[in-house]
Amino acid sequence: AQKVTQAQTEISVVEKEDVTLDCVYETRDTTYYLFWYKQPPSGELVFLIRRNSFDEQNEISGRYSWNFQKSTSSFNFTITASQVVDSAVYFCALVNNAGNMLTFGGGTRLMVKP
Amino acid sequence: DAGVTQSPTHLIKTRGQQVTLRCSPKSGHDTVSWYQQALGQGPQFIFQYYEEEERQRGNFPDRFSGHQFPNYSSELNVNALLLGDSALYLCASSRGQGIYNEQFFGPGTRLTVL
Question: Kind and range of the H or E element at A103?
Answer without folding.
Answer: strand A102-104
